[in-house]
Amino acid sequence: MENFPSVLESIKDLNKRQIDGVLNLAHKLKNRSDTRFSFPNKTPIIATSFLENSTRTKHSFEIAISKLGCTYIDFDAETSSLKKGETLKQTLLTLNDQGVDLCVIRTSVSNQLSEFKEQPPIKIINGGDGTNEHPTQALLDVFTLIENNISLEGKVFCIAGDNIHSRVGHSLIELLPQFGAKVLLFGPKEYLPNITTDKNITITHSRDEVLEKADILYLLRIQTERHGNLKSIENYSEQYGFTLKMIEALNKKLPVLHPGPANIGVEICEELINSKYYLGHEQVRNSIYLRMALVQSMLQNGAKNIGFEENTFFKF
Question: Which Enzyme Commission number(s) are on file for it (predicted)?
Answer without folding.
Answer: 2.1.3.2
